[in-house]
């Protein structure tokens, strides 16, 4: 096998060498570029929002441009959600960017109350109400179609524009700080296993702690909760209630989890299992588990979660996807953990 142009020789690499190479691959080839991509998407979101709000009488096509910018930023955000440690976790940045699970009616209440009480958006968000300031609030403002509160029909459209600009600016500011901290110091500590980490093994266990946590979030919060016990399910439990990009989110999440595991085309744990543990069989089994998830995602591509949870065939497709995710988690939490001695700890999902 090869990785990053280097030949991987079965069983001839030390644990220390393998851990060092995995950390370098994950940091430099996965986390650093995806942080930059999300930051770039927030810059675009802010620019598009500012331009939109300069239009005196915006049309649906103008609003769609903002919606597409949000979709792009949200997609990049979904890619980094499993890296909830270090600068992304500091000062509650993670939940300030997206507080979820959180029922849509509570988001509506928080957003509308801010509008009704003449919240001063020019000074940013100085309170601790996270649901007012993140991507879900922006999603509600630009995708909601309820009478009187849809963006183009709302009487307080100018105030809603001020709100949009404040959210976009805040999201951009938060990610700018996160990206700077990661690049300037934290990524080096992560790769070296020092600073807040006791060792390189501890750094990897921290990574996989949140890796497992987010796999649980996908299976439980993003699929099982909306599915409910019987049709028509619980549509209010969807992650993207207004934009309805739930399966797109999950595809980004799983793609991210796979890259955090295998470091893309660089030296990752797929290579580690061969070079350190001489377990190509386990590597192949995990690749099959990932492939099964993507196959299940292909079956629901272009469909809406809210529609599928109401029909027998759609519910079956969601169950199949959930089972594929659970199957991956089972192998990772047993064979992978035992073979690599990476002990991340489980049941860490704190719900945000």
Distance between the termini: 39 Å
Count of all domains? 1
* Strand residues, percent: under 5%
- SSE pattern: EEHHHHHHHHHHHH
Taken from the alpha-carbon principal axes, the silhouette is: globular
- Report strand order across the widest sheet: 1-2
Helix content: 55-70%
The CATH topology assignment is A middle domain of Talin 1
Could you report the average pLDDT, rounded to the nearest whole number?
Answer: 94
Number of helices in the DSSP assignment: 12
Total DSSP E strands: 2
Biggest pleated sheet: 2 strands, antiparallel
Domain Imelysin-like: 31-330
Keywords: Signal
Organism: Pseudoalteromonas luteoviolacea S4060-1
InterPro entries: Imelysin-like (IPR018976), Imelysin-like_IPPA (IPR034984), Imelysin_sf (IPR038352)
Short summary of the structure?
The chain is an all-alpha fold. Helix content is 65%, strand content 1%. Strands 1-2 form a two-stranded antiparallel ribbon.
Question: What would you say this structure looks like, in words?
Answer:
This protein has 352 residues and is an all-alpha fold. The protein has one domain (2-340): A middle domain of Talin 1. It contains twelve helices and two strands. It has helices spanning 15-53, 60-80, 93-97, 104-116, 135-143, 157-192, 200-227, 246-262, 269-275, 280-300, 305-308, 312-340; strands at residues 2-3, 6-7. The protein has a two-stranded antiparallel ribbon with strand order 1-2. A hairpin with a 2-residue loop joins β1 (2-3) and β2 (6-7). α1 runs antiparallel to α8 and α2 runs antiparallel to α5 (135-143). The longest helix is centred in the first third of the chain and has 39 residues, at 15-53. 45% of the residues are buried. Residues 348-352 have low confidence and may be disordered. Keywords: Signal. It is found in: Cell envelope. Pfam families: Peptidase_M75.
């Amino acid at each position: 096998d090869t990785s990053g142009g280097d030949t991987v020789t079965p069983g001839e690499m030390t644990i220390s060498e393998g851990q060092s190479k995995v950390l370098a691959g994950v940091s430099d080839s996965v986390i650093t570029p995806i942080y930059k991509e999300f930051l770039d998407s927030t810059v675009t979101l802010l620019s598009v929002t500012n331009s939109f709000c300069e239009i005196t009488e915006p049309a649906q096509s103008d609003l769609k441009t903002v919606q597409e910018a949000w979709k792009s930023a949200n997609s990049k955000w979904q890619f980094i959600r499993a890296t909830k440690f270090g600068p992304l976790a500091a000062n509650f940045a993670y939940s300030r960017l997206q507080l979820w699970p959180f029922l849509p009616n509570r988001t509506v209440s928080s957003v509308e109350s801010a509008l009704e009480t003449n919240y001063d958006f020019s000074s940013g968000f100085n309170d601790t109400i996270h649901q007012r300031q993140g991507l879900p609030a922006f999603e509600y403002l630009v995708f909601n179609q309820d009478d009187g509160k849809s963006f183009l029909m709302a009487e307080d459209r100018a105030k809603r524009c001020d709100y949009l600009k404040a959210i976009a600016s805040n999201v951009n500011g938060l990610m700018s700080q996160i990206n700077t901290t990661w690049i300037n110091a934290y990524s080096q500590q992560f790769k070296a296993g020092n600073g807040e980490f006791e060792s390189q093994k501890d750094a990897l266990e921290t990574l996989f702690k949140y890796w497992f946590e987010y796999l649980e979030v996908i299976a439980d919060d993003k699929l099982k909760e909306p599915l409910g016990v019987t049709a028509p399910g619980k549509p209010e439990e969807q992650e993207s209630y207004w934009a309805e990009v739930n399966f797109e989110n999950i595809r980004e999440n799983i793609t991210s989890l796979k890259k955090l595991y295998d470091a893309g085309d660089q030296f990752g744990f797929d290579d580690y299992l061969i070079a350190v543990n001489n377990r190509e069989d386990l590597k192949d089994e995990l690749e099959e588990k990932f492939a099964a998830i993507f196959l299940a995602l292909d079956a629901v591509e272009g469909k809406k979660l809210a529609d599928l949870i109401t029909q027998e065939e759609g519910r079956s497709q969601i169950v199949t996807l959930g089972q594929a995710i659970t199957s991956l988690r089972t192998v990772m939490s047993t064979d992978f953990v035992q073979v690599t001695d990476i002990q991340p700890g489980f049941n860490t999902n704190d719900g945000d």
